Amino acid sequence: MNYEDLLKKARKNLPARTETRFEIPVASVQPGKKQTVIRNFVDIAKALRREPAEIAKYMFKELAVPGSIRNNELVLQSKVPTMLINQRIQEYVRDLVICKECGKPDTALQKVDNYTFVKCEACGAKRTAKM
Asked: Phi, psi (5° rounding) for residue 25?
Protein backbone atom coordinates (compact mmCIF):
# COMPACT_ATOMS: atom_id res chain seq x y z
CA MET A 1 0.00 0.00 0.00
CA ASN A 2 1.22 3.47 -0.81
CA TYR A 3 0.68 6.61 1.23
CA GLU A 4 -2.51 7.65 -0.60
CA ASP A 5 -4.16 4.28 0.02
CA LEU A 6 -3.23 4.39 3.71
CA LEU A 7 -4.61 7.90 3.98
CA LYS A 8 -7.93 6.89 2.40
CA LYS A 9 -8.16 3.90 4.73
CA ALA A 10 -7.48 6.09 7.77
CA ARG A 11 -10.14 8.62 6.73
CA LYS A 12 -12.72 5.84 6.36
CA ASN A 13 -12.04 4.74 9.95
CA LEU A 14 -12.48 8.22 11.43
CA PRO A 15 -15.79 8.85 13.21
CA ALA A 16 -18.12 11.30 11.49
CA ARG A 17 -18.47 14.72 13.06
CA THR A 18 -22.10 15.03 13.97
CA GLU A 19 -22.63 17.90 16.35
CA THR A 20 -20.69 20.35 18.44
CA ARG A 21 -20.84 20.40 22.20
CA PHE A 22 -20.95 24.18 22.40
CA GLU A 23 -23.92 26.33 21.51
CA ILE A 24 -24.09 30.09 21.89
CA PRO A 25 -26.75 30.84 24.50
CA VAL A 26 -29.76 32.94 23.55
CA ALA A 27 -30.73 35.81 25.85
CA SER A 28 -34.12 35.79 27.52
CA VAL A 29 -34.97 39.48 27.31
CA GLN A 30 -37.74 41.30 29.18
CA PRO A 31 -38.24 44.74 27.63
CA GLY A 32 -39.59 47.52 29.80
CA LYS A 33 -40.56 51.14 29.25
CA LYS A 34 -37.19 52.60 30.20
CA GLN A 35 -35.00 49.56 30.74
CA THR A 36 -34.25 46.12 29.36
CA VAL A 37 -33.61 43.08 31.54
CA ILE A 38 -31.65 40.01 30.43
CA ARG A 39 -33.21 37.41 32.71
CA ASN A 40 -30.79 34.52 32.10
CA PHE A 41 -27.59 36.55 32.24
CA VAL A 42 -25.79 34.44 34.86
CA ASP A 43 -26.68 31.29 32.92
CA ILE A 44 -25.13 32.83 29.80
CA ALA A 45 -21.97 33.65 31.76
CA LYS A 46 -21.76 30.06 33.06
CA ALA A 47 -22.21 28.64 29.56
CA LEU A 48 -19.40 30.86 28.26
CA ARG A 49 -17.20 30.12 31.32
CA ARG A 50 -16.70 33.83 32.03
CA GLU A 51 -17.35 36.12 34.97
CA PRO A 52 -20.68 37.97 34.70
CA ALA A 53 -18.90 41.28 35.39
CA GLU A 54 -16.60 40.80 32.36
CA ILE A 55 -19.50 40.11 30.01
CA ALA A 56 -21.51 42.98 31.51
CA LYS A 57 -18.62 45.40 30.93
CA TYR A 58 -18.43 44.28 27.30
CA MET A 59 -22.20 44.63 26.82
CA PHE A 60 -22.29 48.13 28.37
CA LYS A 61 -19.46 49.26 26.10
CA GLU A 62 -20.76 47.66 22.89
CA LEU A 63 -24.37 48.72 23.40
CA ALA A 64 -23.37 52.18 24.70
CA VAL A 65 -25.86 51.79 27.55
CA PRO A 66 -25.30 52.01 31.31
CA GLY A 67 -26.56 49.19 33.46
CA SER A 68 -26.02 46.92 36.42
CA ILE A 69 -26.14 43.32 37.53
CA ARG A 70 -29.10 42.64 39.82
CA ASN A 71 -29.42 39.13 41.28
CA ASN A 72 -29.07 36.84 38.24
CA GLU A 73 -30.11 39.48 35.71
CA LEU A 74 -28.41 42.20 33.69
CA VAL A 75 -30.38 45.45 33.75
CA LEU A 76 -29.73 47.86 30.87
CA GLN A 77 -30.94 51.42 31.47
CA SER A 78 -32.43 51.82 28.00
CA LYS A 79 -34.67 49.97 25.56
CA VAL A 80 -32.47 47.62 23.56
CA PRO A 81 -33.86 45.23 20.92
CA THR A 82 -33.50 41.51 21.66
CA MET A 83 -31.88 40.93 18.27
CA LEU A 84 -29.14 43.46 19.07
CA ILE A 85 -28.43 41.87 22.47
CA ASN A 86 -28.10 38.40 20.94
CA GLN A 87 -25.89 39.81 18.19
CA ARG A 88 -23.52 41.34 20.78
CA ILE A 89 -23.39 38.03 22.69
CA GLN A 90 -22.43 36.26 19.45
CA GLU A 91 -19.70 38.85 18.82
CA TYR A 92 -18.40 38.36 22.37
CA VAL A 93 -18.21 34.62 21.78
CA ARG A 94 -16.46 35.09 18.43
CA ASP A 95 -13.93 37.59 19.81
CA LEU A 96 -13.29 36.38 23.37
CA VAL A 97 -14.41 32.77 23.75
CA ILE A 98 -13.73 30.77 20.57
CA CYS A 99 -10.05 30.00 19.85
CA LYS A 100 -8.91 31.45 16.52
CA GLU A 101 -6.49 28.55 15.98
CA CYS A 102 -8.48 25.40 16.74
CA GLY A 103 -12.05 26.76 16.90
CA LYS A 104 -12.82 25.32 20.33
CA PRO A 105 -14.52 27.23 23.17
CA ASP A 106 -12.05 25.98 25.80
CA THR A 107 -10.42 29.33 26.52
CA ALA A 108 -9.69 31.46 29.55
CA LEU A 109 -8.95 35.16 29.93
CA GLN A 110 -5.59 36.02 31.48
CA LYS A 111 -4.58 39.48 32.64
CA VAL A 112 -0.88 40.35 32.52
CA ASP A 113 0.01 43.93 33.46
CA ASN A 114 -2.39 46.09 31.42
CA TYR A 115 -3.05 43.45 28.76
CA THR A 116 -5.72 40.79 28.53
CA PHE A 117 -5.00 37.57 26.66
CA VAL A 118 -7.26 34.76 25.45
CA LYS A 119 -5.47 31.48 26.20
CA CYS A 120 -6.77 28.27 24.66
CA GLU A 121 -6.72 25.34 27.08
CA ALA A 122 -7.11 22.86 24.21
CA CYS A 123 -4.28 23.81 21.84
CA GLY A 124 -2.25 26.29 23.94
CA ALA A 125 -2.65 29.24 21.56
CA LYS A 126 -2.48 32.70 23.12
CA ARG A 127 -3.58 36.03 21.65
CA THR A 128 -4.44 39.49 22.87
CA ALA A 129 -8.08 40.18 23.60
CA LYS A 130 -9.99 43.12 22.18
CA MET A 131 -11.63 44.56 25.27
From this structure: -65, 150
